[in-house]
Amino acid sequence: MAPDSTKTLSFLPLTAFAYQVLLALADQDRHGYGILKEVERRSGGALKLRTGTLYTLLQRLLQEDLVAEAQSGLKAATDPRSTDRPNSRRRTYRLSALGEAVLRAEGQRLETLAVEARRTHVLGDARRCRP
Amino acid sequence: MSEGPVTSLPYRTIGMVARCLMRLAPPGERLFWAQEAEHTLREVCAEAYRREGGVGLVATAFAECLDLARAALRARLGRATPITAGHPSRPPRQKGRKGMQILIHDIRLGIRSLRTSPTASLVAILTLSLGIGINTAVFSVLDSLLIRPAPFQQPERLVEVWNSAEQSKVRYPRFKRALYQAWRSQTDLFDRVEGYEVESAIYAGPEGAQSVGASFVTPRLLSMLGVAPLAGRVFHDGDGREGTAAQVVISERFRREQLGSLVDVLGSTLTLNGRPHTIVGIMPASFHFPNRSQELWLPLDVDDPPAALRDSRIVAYARLAPGVGLAQAAESVGERGSRLSTSAGGPASVSAALMPVSQRGDSGSRQSLIVLGGAVMFLLLIVCANLANLSLSRTLARGRDFAVRSALGATRRDLIRETVVENLLVGVFGVAGGLVLATVVLQTTTGLIPDQMLFQSLNRIDLDLRALTFTIVAGLLTSLTFGLPPALLGSRPNIVGVLRHESRSSTGSSASRRLRSGLVVGEVTVAIVLLVGAALMVRSFLKLHALEPGFQSEGLVSVRVGFPSEPYAEPQVRDRFSADALAELRRLPGIRSATVGTVPPDAGSIRFSQLEFAGKPGELTEQLIVPTYNVWPDYFAVLRLPMVDGRTFTDDEPASSIIVSQSFARNYWPGQSAVGQQFRSEGSKTWLTVVGVATEVRQLSLDDSIGSFEWYQPQKTAPGAAAPVRSASPSPTIEYRTFVVRADDPVAAMPLLKQAIHRVDSRMVLWKTSVVDDLFTEAIARPRVVLVLLLVFSGVGLVLAAAGIYGVLSYLVSQRLREIGIRLALGASPEGMFKQIIWSGMSFTLAGLITGLVASYFLVRVMRSILFEVEPSDPIAVGAVSLLLLMTAVAACWRPARRAMSVDPVTLLRDQ
């Protein structure tokens, strides 16, 4: 069932960290350390997400059903992309349907904003704007 | 990544720190992510080490731990990490965490709300600090002097047994030995009966002889009190008998001040009254018995006392037998008193009374303290009313805020809770401020409390746990008292009304208006009671101050001199010294005259006796208390104390001569001359003959009402004449005489007098040198302290009440601005508006004035015993207070009324 659009929109705008965490989970399921690395990579080190913030954020995302727990431990271990040994202390997180919807909505919102910025020549290039 | 590096020591340490920090998070969340986070943290640190080496590791570990602590704390405070950047997201509420979260939320809200109006908040906190600080300080003094029991074992079961004159109900301590022994045998009533006798001893120290407070105590008294000595021992049975070695127990203060350099104090000797005494024990500094001035304790065996102490009298100090109640014991003591008195050879008219140790202290001081305690409570009430008014204003001003929040779903309970928490915050700050103030007040003023009031107290005056508890309870109760009613009223917002109204000013319901007016009336009422109390004290004090002592006190200086018992055992030797000293004194420059005799307000010796008059043999008067002055012939001339009838004493006056005061003569020989009349004390063989009648003198104490009796007896008597009759036992250790001089410059003369006395005999003990006028000032020290404090309290009360009136009127005017504007626009005169506002202010004041006067009529009766010749319903005091209050009220109404008068209808209506 497609997530309720009102509910989806109620999460917007996302905080920078929440957006980055959801984005990190968009292409693959990751455990905490994986998320940290991915956020760092994507932002080119500009956004420094730290452990305490990450886990309190993950907990909120879990409570709000934006993120779910992937099959923990074992799955991570069988995952060829994972470099870790099987570890019961480790959970792997995945994006939920609601999370995906929210991420998409936030992406669109940002895009609209970017378009607006281009249209007003804030970004210097008006030709590439879409209707 | 291998397991190796993340499990090595540095990472384990980091993990441990992280685990500690994560304990800051609420348990539920901790369980969820703690282990995982620790693992991730180690990996992050390992990565940093690989990239940047040791420095990178430390920096990263530090930053990560900081972030962990911050995240854990946020979780604890219920502030989840936001995922939405818009309006603050609410964390889902969980059971168990709720109360704490709500409280923290309310506290934050409260602080924010207090900070929005910093001046008002500061005024509220300072007012409360003032109220609580003064209350705490006065409570500490009251607690130490009146409430807290003496620091002895089971103090509530300790009693003194006193004489009680049947007819006059006069009570006085000290039994003769036989009577004391009779009481000691009443074992069904008392577990133990011990005794003491307050004395003084001459201590020959390295800095010369001086007089020290020393009490004789029965050997087991100190052990009965249950206070352990600091060092050594207390007395044993058998100490203090005739022929035993002289022993002494000293106080810690005496050891510190007199024997400071001595190492082995125990076992060393002190020379007291010319005799060596072995120190057997040291009592702790907190031990005071039977009053604060005692520093030495000497043993006295009542059954076999040393010869010099055979005639001494003893205060019976007893512990009630187990199972005997105080009331029951008091009744039995009253019943047996007369029988025991006759069996011990005393008069049948004197019974006995039980005086619980917990109720010691003179009634005047007790009453003064109770009045002051009541006064500060009243002050706190005014503070409460004022704060309630302030709090109500704040709450009402937020009516719109409340309405909006109600509309958004806040329950009434939420609103009340938040308001109460906000007021409790004021309370907490007020308590903190109050404690600081109380500490400062106590530290600066304890020294100003007259000795008269402290004398009997056996406790220290300090801010102890009891005072602290009192402060906190008072603070919280106060903040609830002033916080709850506004919370209840303010939390009932008329949502529709408030939201529809576009007025910026808040609206008060009629209930809140009634509450505010009620508070102001209450404030005025309490202020009136305080003011009436203060005014009565002023009147009483002025009357005391204006009293004529009966003689010319200006220029008089008195020196109290103690005779060492060794060379001065015989009265003739003392007389010879006195004559020599007088001659020496008269030779001093600036000294006009000199004599010997106690000078009022010192009372010399106090006689308790029943009299038998020569005209009515066998008929005894009621028990009398008569201050008796032992004087030399030229005493009356030096003091300029006029004789009304008869003559003064001569140089070789018989010991049976007596001079009485005018009121005494008038009372017992009305309509005839007292000169030549004879009377004697009960139990005395010698008839005393009145040779003169002197003008009445005053001690200027409150107990000294008009018509008091005084006797003067010759101290210097003809050689071979019988010694003067004395009911008080002669001191076994020392006799004092007071030398009085009239000097041109009393203060300059004081050191000269001391030198002159020591020139005659350097062994003389100088007890006290005083300017007589200063003694009179000292005599009214207690009323002065009560007066000053009551004036301060009532002044603060008046200002607060005026502030209350001002606040309510200002509010009233601001509420009615629109109405006033319309009225003015319709042709009402500004003067009319002015009068109307003044009248509304005065109506509160008058209501408060009337209730206040009625209340004070009943309440200030407790002051009766500390007032001097002023009735509690004194019309002048009441009139002055009413006038003062009305004037203050008019002043408080002035500004709001002026504002109402100067409303410009056009501007106002346009704005609205």
Explain what the structure shows.
The complex is a heterodimer of chains A (131) and B (912). Chain A has 131 residues and is mostly helical. Chain A has one domain (7-99): Orthogonal Bundle (Arc Repressor Mutant, subunit A). Helix content of chain A is 54%, strand content 7%. The longest helix of chain A is centred in the last third of the chain and has 23 residues, at 97-119. Chain B has four domains: 3-76, no CATH class; 177-345, no CATH class; 364-546 and 781-911, no CATH class; 568-762, no CATH class. In chain B, strands 1, 2, 3, 4, 5, 6, 7, 8, 9, 10 and 11 form an eleven-stranded mixed sheet that branches. In chain B, strands 14, 15, 16, 17, 18, 19, 20 and 21 form an eight-stranded mixed sheet that branches. Chain B is globular, with a radius of gyration of 38 Å. Chain B starts with a helix and ends with a helix. Mean pLDDT of chain B is 81; it is low at 87-95, 502-507 and 720-733. The chains are: A mainly alpha (131), B alpha+beta (912). Chain A binds chain B through residues 10-18, 31-33, 36, 50-61, 63-64, 66, 83-85, 87, 89-91, and chain B through 1, 3, 18, 29, 32-33, 35-37, 39-41, 43-44, 63-64, 67-72, 74-75, 80-86, 91-92.
